[in-house]
Predict the 3D structure of the following.
Amino acid sequence: MNVKRFIAASLAVYVVSLALGYLVHGVFLRATYDSLKNVWRPDMPSKMWIEWLDGFIVSFLFTYIFIKGYQGRGIMEGLRFGLIIGLFVSIPMAYGTYMIIPIPYYLALEWFFYGTAQAILLGAVAAAVYKPLASPAPIKRPATA
């Protein structure tokens, strides 16, 4: 494991995850969330630091798992990894939450699709950043007679 590339990839995954999280939850799903105000914790904004911390930790775990199976096959490897992790995480998160709290089915379905899509993109980020640096071309020396 290349520690510098691991840290760089983990931080890139975290930053992209924050941006995607804002886009999905702060933009795309905002109207839905606003229509369900009685479902959410009234003090949720004061607890956002927990989301940022857990996202930071999960970004490192996500990247660590990726590099443990890293085969150097480029972005497609990251997309495949993201799909597997996305399904692994999004199915129980979306449908487990649907079972526990009174949210509409379409929100669970959106969480499933957006969560899977986010993981796919994060897998691509991990693959793009973790890839080995291109090795310099060998120096060609003129043949001597």
